[in-house]
Structure formats: C-alpha cells, structure tokens
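FAQ: What does the model actually see?

It sees only this:
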Amino acid sequence: MFAQLATPLMKRLSLIFPLGLLLVCVSCGDKHAGPLAQAGTAVTNLHTYQVKGVIKKLPPDGKTVVIQHEEIPDYMSAMTMPFRVKDPNVLRGLQPGDAVSFRLRVTDDEGWIDAITRVAGAALAGQTAEPAASASVVAALNPGDLLPDFTFTNELGQTIHFSQFRGSALAFTFIFTRCPFPEFCPRMCKQFLAASQKLATMANAPTNWHLLTISFDPDHDTPPVLKAYAERYGYEPARWSFATTSAEDIARLAPLCDLMVRRDGESFMHNLRTVVVDTDGRVRRIFTDNAWAADELANEIVQAAAAPKAASP
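And it is asked to produce this:
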C-alpha cells in the first residue's frame, strides 16, 4: 500500500508502529482554520463522522486504538492510523482483528473516538496488510550529537542551511501542509506559534533563536504554498521559517531524527519529531509525538540559546 521514498535509507520506515505512537496525516483539501490571533485559541467547529474499519492494534496505554479505516468522504482517505479515546471504557472488550463501526469527533484542535461497536465483517476491500518490520539502518541522533548540515528552500524561495543558525538555538519540526487532522501537523504549528509568543513576552528571554518547520512533501509544498500556509499562523519570518528540501535529503534527514514517513499518493503516514539544537549545532533534545507543551519547548530553547559556543578548532 505504501510506496517507499526513493532511497535505501527509508527501508527503516517499514516499522509502521514503532514504540512511539505513529501518526497518520492524509490530504483531503483545505480543512485548516484561518489565521490564528493567539496560539491555543479554543475553536469548537465540531464535526462528526461515522466510519467503518478493522482494529489493527490496541497499544498498552489503553487510550489509543489503531484502525484500518475506510475513506471518510470530504475529510480523509482510507488509511491505517491511531485514534485517541477520552474514555478508555470505549475500548473495553475489543481485540485486534475486530471489524468495527466507530464515531469520530473532530474539532479545529483535537480529534477522538467516543463510540465504537464490533460488527460482522472482514478486512476492508482495497486495503493491504501491514508490511513486516525491518531493522533500522541509520542510527538516530542523541543529545550531544552534532547535527549534520542540510540545505533547504524556504517559503520566500531562499536557500537556507542548518549551519547558518550556529550561534543561535534552533528548533525544527516536520509537517506537510495538506494534513487535515488537528492533533498532527496543525498542532505542531500551533505549538511553535505558542512557543514563539512565549519567548517574545518572556522577561530576559534570549534573542538568538529560530524556529524551522520542514515539509516532507516537496512536490506540493512549494515556496508559495509554504508562505500561504505560514501566514495562517501569523508567523514572523525573522523568527520562524517554513521550508522543504528534496525527497532524497528528507530520506537522509528523517532517520537521523527518528522520523518515520510513508507516502501513498498524496497521503502520508508519519510520526512526530521536534528537535532542539544548541548554539554549537548539537542536539539538545528531541520531543516525540505531540503531548509536549509549548512552554517546554520555549524553556528548552532558552537553555539551548545560553549554551556556550565551542571554540573553533
């Protein structure tokens, strides 16, 4: 079902469900909210979808279910992805392999299942079994490791490099602009916006910091698309860049950040990774998934910006 990105390094991405929660973002048109005056602004805009699928996995947290689901018209392509439940009792008695019907609730800020029922049925037509897992071939970076340099094109059409941010704290994360599900790519952008606002108002905050949002969909996310997307979040170009690079470089960078990406046409299956780099170009912290708070990121950036720059050899 999933086409491999063009490089042997991406063989490691055949781990569909790693220890960390693997997230799926799929394109389905423009479902994003307009410009955000303040990060974290509560927006209800509740939509309800009744969906059929097959349970593939029940992670041990008791609050997540991975479902191979049918297409959700006007919202989401058929895909295998994790969904959150607010009440763990919703999952009681269910097992992997069960055919189910479930009610999906989605707002501008979150999505969850609040009802799920076992039904008679088998695997959905047109969907394939998950491929077997394979071992990683590239080791992910750890705190203290030097971040290799990569070249990107930003939303202004300019060439930028990781190395140009030496002397500043850099935080970068990964998205694609056609992602509709509020807890995935849109949340990463809202968290970056909230962190930038925190830093802008923090007493004695450093001035040597920058945010970078990297798209792994270079075919679609051209500079004009990235610029229009960035403007939805009221970004400041001097502090926050949106950029992309070639599929080959994404394939090289992804495993270094423990980022897992799978493409199927215009759809992507991926996890979430946010990396903080200090003034010396060394990894300080890698945030996994989407549960971290904007204040955590802002505090990491403050500490990364204060790290002494190593003397030149």
